[in-house]
Design goal:
Elements (H helix, E strand, L loop, with lengths): L1 H12 L5 H9 L6 H7 L6 H8 L4 E4 L5 E18 L1 H7 L4 E18 L5 E10 L1
Antiparallel strand pairs: 1-2, 2-3, 3-4
Length: 131
């Protein structure tokens, strides 16, 4: 009987992951981030290289000198749910114990890339927020 209880306890822990670990996994699924902008975008790179690094921009406009300005604007809502259930406890004591938590947050990232007359990156800026 002790072997069965020990086996059930080990099996019940196999799928557990903390809410913070799960949140990190969810938040790192996007390909555009401040880190990507810092690492990949360089002054002098071509528009094709920018698209390869970040994908297509959300908006393309021109400044007063008719130079292109690309804007990437991303908004993400992260909802993390975790729950646990004491089903091993339920087998032994005839009851069931459950607990859980839910957390929701939003992230925004805006990247503005300015090109020169030769369509090469002349400047870029980014802003990130989380609430």
């Amino acid at each position: 009987m002790k072997i069965i209880v020990a086996l059930l306890a080990v099996l019940s822990m196999g799928g557990c992951v903390s809410a913070s670990t799960h949140a990190d996994q969810v938040q790192n699924n996007g390909n555009i981030s401040v880190g990507v902008a810092q690492k990949e975008i360089k002054v002098g790179m071509s528009g094709a290289d920018v698209i390869q690094a970040l994908g297509s921009p959300n908006m393309v406009s021109t400044d007063d000198k008719r130079r292109e300005v690309w804007v990437y604007d991303k908004v993400a809502t992260d909802t993390v749910q975790s729950s646990s259930s004491g089903w091993v406890f339920a087998v032994l004591a005839g009851g069931q114990s459950r607990s859980g938590a839910t957390s929701t947050s939003q992230r925004t990232l805006t990247i503005v890339i300015k090109f020169d007359e030769q369509n090469l990156v002349r400047d870029f800026a980014y802003h990130s927020s989380k609430f």
